[in-house]
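lol ok so funny story. i was supposed to be doing the assay writeup but got distracted and ended up predicting the structure for this chain instead. priorities right. anyway since i did it might as well share w the group, maybe its usefull for someone
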Amino acid sequence: MSTSTSNGSLFELDRELDLLLDKIQEQAEEGGEANVSPELVERFHQFCHAFDRKVDRIGQFLITLNARAEHCRGQAVRLSERARTAENKAVRTKQMVLYFLASRGINKVEGLETSLRRQKNSQDSVIIHNETLVPLEYREIEAKIPGSFWQQILARVPEEDKQRLNSCVRHSLPSSSAIKAAKLVNEDVLGAEIRRDHHLRVE
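and the output, tada:
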């Protein structure tokens, strides 16, 4: 590990802090907080014990990360829609080029840096003419479902369907609201606890 906490430039401080937090995050995700290397924790403490601009860099770094996270949350739906729009444009553009090539009886046109070639697919393709008309049974559903409701669904379906449903799950995260609700009725949640902790305020 470098010694930029003592004599590094601002750019080096930002870069090292970013890399350091990436390593801590990676180890924590692999085996929990207890799995984080003491050396990495001590290295971060060195940043915290620094003065002047080094402390400023940590504060600015936190402000930037929080702003980035908030921006990404706010833009998630918009970016998803933009991605779909771009994908649809790409599909339409390809279809128009294919029509152009087919209507002129040619298989290829060349530009200065790229070429466009019409080739037969190795398998059949699905062409969607109007997405809104496609029945539900022929769609893939991506949903956000509370764990308690998901549990009720699994309890009411045959074992074979449980396996199919579970295979559709892409990602699951602990729900703070559900865990807090359990605590209100004195229910313990394995792997989690409720406590009044501290938070870091950047001023």
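Confidence is low (pLDDT under 50) at residues 1-8. Residues 135-194 form one domain.
back to the writeup now i swear
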